[in-house]
Amino acid sequence: MSHQSWAEPFKIKMVEPLRMTTRAEREAAIAEAGFNTFLLRSTDVYIDLLTDSGTGAMSDRQWAGLMLGDESYAGSVNYYHLEDAVREYFGYKHVIPTHQGRGAEHLLSQVCINPGDMVPGNMYFTTTKFHQQLAGGQFVDVIVDEAHDPENEYPFKGNVDPEKLQAVIDEHGSGRIAYLSLETNVNMAGGQPCSMANIRCVSQLCHEQGIPVYLDATRAVENCYFIKQREPGYADRSLREILLEMCDFTDGCTVSGKKDCLVNIGGFLAVNDDKLAAQARNLCVAFEGLHTYGGLAGRDLEAMAIGLVESLDENHMRARIGQVHYLGQKLIDAGIPIVKPIGGHGVFINAERFLPHIPREHFPAQALTAALYVDSGVRTMERGAVSVGRDPKTGENIYPNLELVRLTIPQRVYTQAHMDVVAESVSAVHLQRDSISGLRFTYEPELLRFFQARFESVIEKRVPTRSPETALSSSSSEK
Predict the structure, then answer these.
(1) Cis before 120? omega within 30
(2) Closest of 429, 289, 452 to residue 364, by C-alpha
(3) Is the distance from CB of 112 to CB of 177 less than 8 angstroms?
(4) DSSP readout, 134-182?
(5) Can you tell me the mean pLDDT for 217-240?
(6) Quick check: 5 pLDDT over 90?
(7) 3-class DSSP state for residue 458?
């Protein structure tokens, strides 16, 4: 087809009814949840954009695969199907299944990191950084500066800055660098990809100095799609070819199968090093389950092997990215400040510009997630200061450059009409933004606080009501 419009490369054969709520019901629900969308009951949510992790719709082939589950405790045939798929499409030698991505992060961190080691990476991710610190490591951000500027249109804002990386190596010595943690389609930067040229460059830099490189390949196929679309020399390459080349530059990867692999649970660690694989399998037995099931049922392993192949279908990925860009463009057209360019798995609202009257210490992104839910029943999530947490040495809140609200689109779940509702809700809240109050903690967990924290409203000093154009202009000048 020559036209540029996209359409879902599937048809719907089963539906799940959604419950419609009143504004009064939503106000009561968010108050009960302590203004934390993670604590809402799913039955109180209309359109759920909290995450795309395990929330996608499986295909008929995946559902059929569930019936082929071999639930043997050891040596399930489904494990070998997954192993074959990972070896064929990722190219790594050893495959260790885990219950989900953070299980793989835990295994990799425990076998690779010694206390005091540095772990450079292209922007932190919450659970990845937590497991690195739990193993005694210290994460160091070496992402390009463009990633911290929501308005910058640089096409590969997930890239590692080679000079920053080399500076970390020079300061600490290559022997104290556990590995380069290289995330594809960087989540906290707004779903932004790395270029193949950058992956090649930084991998060569590390390998020349004896430093391994491990991918967070959770959204690697999305990253491959952007390479095909944006990087010279890749337009005629298949996603499968691009993925194999990407992995060939690295020593292994962690994967949450709940994203690209299109399953509701599961993940894996894949590596080339025989000794490291043996160590990881030993830890898998202790923390996840036997090394041939990793905490998963055989049916889940089968569904993940099938979903991995389906994710590499270019019609699927074109529609997946197309839906994200459809929503993102509608928000741009409505004057909503979002991270640009539009990313791979969700649209990220710049909450600092959206709510300039709320100071950072009152968590504008968290406040915006609550306001969006109350308006329409759309559940989103905060990706800002609440997610980052506190400085482990001083105990003070860390305020990252990006204070974002993530509208994450589950794969194969919602229609364009749902995206229209979301865009209308964001626009409506934007018109009433001056009425939104900041938040403060009433309960703050010690670890990964954004999952379980509770808040209460803080009454801000009000500013006069302004038009959207005036507000955006003034907030831009303030920046």
Answers:
(1) no
(2) 429
(3) no
(4) HTT-EEEE-B-GGGG-TT---TTTT-B-HHHHHHHHHHH-GGGB--EEE
(5) 98
(6) no
(7) strand
Q: Which stretches of 195-287 are DSSP H helices?
A: 196-208, 220-230, 239-248, 274-287
CATH number of 60-311: 3.40.640.10
Asked if residue 372 lies in contact with residue 425, where contact means CB atoms within 8 angstroms, the answer is yes
Annotated catalytic residues are 73, 125-126, 216, 259, 383, 450
**Following DSSP, what letter does each residue of 81-123 receive, concatenated?**
HHHHHHHHHT--SEEEEESSHHHHHHHHHHHH--TT-EEEESS
pTM of the model: 0.92
Residue with the two structure tokens 């509701």: 264
The residue extents of the domains of the chain are: 23-45+314-478, 60-311
CA distance 264 to 11: 20
Are 190 and 216 in contact by the 8 Å Cβ rule? The answer is no
- How far apart CA 59 and CA 101 sit, in angstroms, is 21
- Topology annotation, domain 23-45+314-478: Aspartate Aminotransferase, domain 1 (3.90.1150)
Does residue 407 contact residue 362 with C-beta atoms inside 8 Å? Answer: no
- Sign for the CA dihedral angle at 303, 309, 312, 315 comes to negative
pLDDT digits (tens, 9 = 90+) for 102-143: 999 999 999 999 999 999 999 988 899 999 999 999 999 999
Give 162-213 pLDDT, tens digit per residue. Answer: 999 999 999 999 999 999 999 999 999 999 999 999 999 999 999 999 999 9
pLDDT computed for residue 392 by the predictor = 87
Q: At 3, is the secondary structure helix, strand, or coil?
A: coil
